[in-house]
Amino acid sequence: xxxxxxxxxxxxxxxxxxxxxxxxxxxxxxxxxxxxxxxxxxxxxxxxxxxxxxxxxxxxxxxxxxxxxxxxxxxxxxxxxxxxxxxxxxxxxxxxxxxxxxxxxxxxxxxxxxxxxxxxxxxxxxxxxxxxxxxxxxxxxxxxxxxxxxxxxxxxxxxxxxxxxxxxxxxxxxxxxxxxxxxxxxxxxxxxxxxxxxxxxxxxxxxxxxxxxxxxxxxxxxxxxxxxxxxxxxxxxxxxxxxxxxxxxxxxxxxxxxxxxxxxxxxxxxxxxxxxxxxxxxxxxxxxxxxxxxxxxxxxxxxxxxxxxxxxxxxxxxxxxxxxxxxxxxxxxxxxxxxx
Length: 340
Ligand SMILES: C=C1C[C@]23C[C@@]1(O)CC[C@H]2[C@@]12CC[C@H](O)[C@@](C)(C(=O)O1)[C@H]2[C@@H]3C(=O)O
Ligand SMILES: O=C(O)CCC(=O)C(=O)O
Ligand SMILES: [Fe+2]
Prior knowledge:
Blueprint: E1 18-19, E2 31-33, H1 39-49, E3 52-56, H2 62-76, H3 80-84, E4 93-99, E5 104-114, H4 122-130, H5 132-136, H6 139-162, H7 171-175, E6 182-188, E7 201-208, E8 214-219, E9 225-228, E10 234-236, E11 244-248, H8 250-255, E12 265-268, E13 275-282, E14 289-290, E15 308-309, H9 310-318
Parallel strand pairs: 2-3
Antiparallel strand pairs: 1-7, 3-11, 4-5, 5-6, 6-13, 7-12, 8-11, 8-13, 9-10, 9-12, 14-15
């Protein structure tokens, strides 16, 4: 639904969608302790049931979070004209409200970066030059390196839990120097005018699944993140600035032939507090064939999906609207109930 502004003050968010307030807080969020000997089993269980879990005792020092968050806020607090020098995102760079290039908008500003220096686009280089503080400091790089290392461990545990052989079948795709991964810093400013919306919530980042293999999110202590459960209800994820929240992406759903499900999620804006989040999206190299892993398939089990490369999936995803069910296009017509 489009907001019909109730005052002039609301004009600047008049194209952004609202939704009914959700009161239910996700109390049963699966929590995985990376040091727990049972971690591999718990990761698989959480990803089968929710495509989502919270990770604690992850070993990434809090200092990495606080440094990057401070640098991010310094950047987002710059005058608009300075931030605009790092945009528009195509797809990398600074973006304000527009998400992707197919008409999606949200109450958010962001920096989208490539994590692979070898294929750093000209746009990213411009970002480096135009926003010296955040990119001259080592905060972004240090954070990404630490989160990548931890993510490799998580997907290796996942492979162990799923009895995938070899155990680096997933992590090698993320470790590959041509891995098509990216990193996003999101800033959701407070929206005091929300109170005039009669209790409705403003969409910060509309509902979607992440196309990649895995997404690793960390935010400050502001709520807003919600996930969609199997019964289609939306629940709020209580924020925890010391932990990571891990999402199964579409590519992992396909590689496990639907056993792990990519999770639909969204972010709602708050009226009083600003939310800062940082997300590493781990993707495979562009040329990688995305198909169910042989060691996971039962005898005679057939793939639910047509064969495609990550490049083909990504190209199709980037032509789609944020909320689209992107995997639908790649499901085998006779393949059974993979859909949503
Ligand atoms: C509307 C879009 C934004 C997006 C590209 C897309 O066309 C559909 C997928 C979107 C998404 C969601 C997860 C990540 O935030 C993202 C970077 C990605 O890989 O897919 C975004 C894309 C984007 O913001 O460009
Ligand atoms: O900002 C967040 O907390 C989540 C955003 C998100 O889902 C995304 O950028 O893909
Ligand atoms: Fe997402």
